[in-house]
Structures are given as structure tokens and as C-alpha cells.
Amino acid sequence: MKIAVVGGGPAGSRSAELLSRLGARLILYECRRGWEKPCGGGVPERSIDFCPFLADSSLPQRAAVAARIYSPSGREARVPLREPLRIFSRADLNGHLLARAGEAGVSLHSSRVTSLRREGLRWILTDDSGRQEEADFVVGADGAGGAVRQRVAKSLPPLAQSIGIGYFVEGLTSDEIVVKFFDSLDGYLWIFPRCDHLAVGICGPTGPGQPEALFSQLHRFLVDLYGAPIMKRLRRYGARIPSLPASLTVRDACLGSGWALVGDAAGLVDPLTREGIHYALASAQFLSEGLADGRIEE
User: Fold this and answer.
1) What is the pTM of this model?
2) What CA–CA distance (Å, rounded) separates 245 from 19?
3) Which fold has domain 2-39+89-158+245-293?
4) DSSP state of 136
5) How far is CA 63 from each of CA 41, 57, 80, 86, 262, rounded to the nearest angstrom?
6) Which of 38, 72, 205, 228 is the most buried (most CB within 10 A)?
7) pLDDT tens profile 248-257
């Protein structure tokens, strides 16, 4: 079987690696070779069940051993974590997973898929260089707004959307995560330590004026916690966060004739915590097992 995977983030790279090791011929489209992404970058220990190599100390990571939690009223609790939270730069993590896919025999195309169409039982994919490839099966791992989802999920309801915005704080890190909750916000504020900087952010519903309101709350908290000079060390980011609407079952969201969606493309993000990396890796594992067994619907 020849499989085309579109998107080389954790879900796409891991899917391609596993399917290649199972004997399929794999093409992986990704025009970047390791890139930063606006998120905390936390990977819980249960992800190590899917990817034991993430525990390798040669892969740059920071272990958070405690969580400092702030209630809406400002009360504070520091909770030791029973298992550490491994926190990666997404540039390091994405680059590492792409390299593993290449080592497993995946053919890496440094291009972006611009269109895909079905001819009988085959897919025809065209990239931004004009090159065409045929595939028996297509895996969409190029996000909620990616080319694959737009092509195969036209009849599905749109994914729910929230927004995550924040900063990278250069030259400052720690061994704990910080989480702050608010009375009036369906979301939360986070501070995750990476190897040489902090990833700080806040998430909440989309809508007019929301980014400005979220940044205002984030600024106040950062100044209260670290002092005004912290504002000179910030590098801004922002992104939309997809998740499954309550009306859509997981099977309907990620599987069809000759195609599957994994990770963010399927909306496999926890709607409460907005956690996505673990579900990206898990969905890659389940997809590869299903295709190998010939029972992908299970």
C-alpha cells in the first residue's frame, strides 16, 4: 500500500514512521524541517507509552516537577506532580519526529499539498511545485484548516474553535508549571518552562475583542508575578485551537473511504485543557494499528 501523509507535525510524522515500519510505502509532505508553534509544549508521561524515545535525555526537554495553581480569587497552591511533565520546544520535537520518519524509510517531500482528488480508488496529490503523486490512502495531519480536511470533510460540521495567545519569555525558565483560572473565562492562563525560555499564554473563546481582553489579563498576571521588567523580554504568538463539537463522533470526525485525519486535523484536542500533543501521538498509534490489522474502523 502507498500512503501519503500531509503534514509533518507530531501526528503526521509519527503516523508516517509507524506505517513505514509496518511495510507500507510512505510519502510525507512537510515544507518545514522543525518549527516553533504557539503552545506550552507539554507531553505527559502517558505519552511515553506510545513514544518511549521521548524519555531520551539527548532530546532537549525540561521536566516540570510541580504545578503552581492560582484560583480565580487569587488563592495559591503548589502541588508536587506524581510524574514529571516533559516540556519540549516544538521546533526540537517536530524536527526530531521528522528525522525519525526519514530514518524509517519515509520519502520526505519539502513541499505543500495544494490539491488532492480521487480517481477511482486512487488519490492524486499535487504540491506547490506542480509535482503529482498517486496514493492508495491519504492521512490528513495538516491541521484543522489544512488541504486534506477541506477536501474530505465538506459534509462535517465545523470544528469548535478557541484561541490561544501569549509570549515566549527569553532567558527565563523554572522547574514548575503555573496555571491561573478566572471567574469570567472559559479557559485558563499557563506558564510552561522550556529549556531556555518560558512559554506563557492564555486561552479562551473566539470572538470580537477577545484577543485584547485575554492579553490584558495575561499582562496583569505576568507583571504581578515577575515585575514590570518582564514585559521587555516577550516574543508574541497566537493560534486557533480546534476541538470536536459535541455533535460529532470521533469516528465520523476522522475516518472515511480511503482517508483518515489525525491530531488537530481531526479536532483531537481536549476541549477543557486544550491539550493536543498527546492525542496527536495516540491517534498516530491507533491509525497505524488499524491499518496494519485491516480494521481501520475499529
Assistant:
1) 0.93
2) 29
3) FAD/NAD(P)-binding domain (3.50.50)
4) S
5) 11, 11, 12, 5, 27
6) 38
7) 887 788 999 9
